[in-house]
Design a protein that fits this description.
320 residues; mainly beta; 28 strands; 3 helices; single chain; 48% strand; 4-stranded antiparallel β-sheet; Methylamine Dehydrogenase, Chain H
Length: 320
């Protein structure tokens, strides 16, 4: 067994650090400049399958994983790096598939339910949401002060549920449950922009990325990654929502312009009217293609995102 094997990778919502779950423990890195911020070794935490850091704080939330976990896969552990000790643990009936954190909430995703806790003081369960079977543990939450939208797969194939977590804190607040029928196939990847106004998603087909308005549920734009199927592993907006980056197991990262869509490429066939031959051909020819792309060293899943302090289209890319 290689204890250097990477089991999971998570990005802070500020895009300024990322956390690695390893067979040998966990490590948190700063993005710019690239530097290690924190390391917990195998003796302390064992193998780590999922890990999240509360912004750039001393609190680390993780779940065991890999071939030699020290803690059960159904138990969430909370480590305080200032106190250098575990301060809380939460057990569940089934394995934890993913974790999400925002300033005042911890979200734990199981295969058929999502559990929302107040966090970090105190850690108390606020809500349990039954879901359709969610084997990938798909769930995202907006970290904006003014928005607490959470998204996860909906009841119908290709749908995405939008839930406003502010309704938990204010029972008098009108419910804002919304359902977006985003795709015909199973949703495999989704993300929110920083303000929670835009939702981008991709299906198991992997050829298209669609962007919806979270308030109106209207489809705003559709981007074409390629013609052949792919497993899309990551989608992220830039901090200003001007661009969107997408990576897959094809070893290529695509960048799309969300605001100034004239920057995106279109098929040369669209200029000669070929797209009007049929609805199917027309949809393909009239698609918006990336405005930039580049290849990764190998065809493996990857995490892509934009850095904070640069106008460059792409920030850092870390292979999983």
């Amino acid at each position: 067994m290689s204890r250097r094997k990477l089991l999971s990778l998570s990005l802070s919502k500020g895009h300024n650090c990322f956390s690695c779950g390893l067979e040998s423990g966990l490590v948190v890195y700063n993005v710019q400049p690239l530097a290690r911020l924190l390391k917990l070794d195998f003796e302390t935490v064992g193998g780590v399958g999922h890990v999240e850091m509360l912004q750039r704080s001393n609190l680390i939330v993780f779940v065991g994983g890999g071939q030699a976990p020290k803690f059960p896969l159904h138990q969430v552990m909370i480590w305080d790096d200032f106190l250098k000790k575990f301060v809380y643990e939460i057990a569940f009936p089934t394995p934890v598939l993913s974790l999400r954190l925002r300033k005042n909430k911890l979200i734990v995703v199981l295969q058929s339910s999502i559990h929302v806790f107040s966090f970090p003081n105190p850690v108390e369960k606020l809500l349990t949401i039954p879901t359709q079977t969610n084997p990938k543990g798909l769930c995202e939450v907006c970290t904006s002060v003014d928005c607490q939208l959470m998204i996860y797969p909906g009841p119908q194939t290709g749908s995405i549920q939008i839930t406003d977590l502010l309704t938990i804190e204010d029972p008098g607040r009108a419910s804002t449950e919304r359902l977006v029928q985003a795709h015909q196939h199973e949703v495999v990847c989704m993300t929110l922009n920083q303000s929670g106004t835009l939702l981008a998603s991709a299906s198991s087909k992997g050829t298209l990325v669609r962007v919806h308005n979270t308030q109106t549920r209207v489809l705003l734009v559709e981007f074409r990654r390629g013609a052949d199927p792919a497993n899309i592993s990551c989608i992220n907006f830039s901090q200003d929502s001007a661009f969107l980056c997408v990576s897959s197991d094809k070893g290529t990262v695509h960048v799309f312009a969300v605001q100034d869509q004239s920057l995106n490429r279109k098929s040369t066939l669209a200029q000669v009217g070929i797209g009007q031959l049929s609805k199917t051909v027309g949809t393909y020819v009239d698609s918006q293609w990336d405005c930039a792309q580049f290849a990764l060293p190998s065809e493996i899943p990857s995490l892509c995102f934009f850095t904070l302090d640069t106008k460059s289209v792409i920030g850092k890319f870390i292979s999983i």
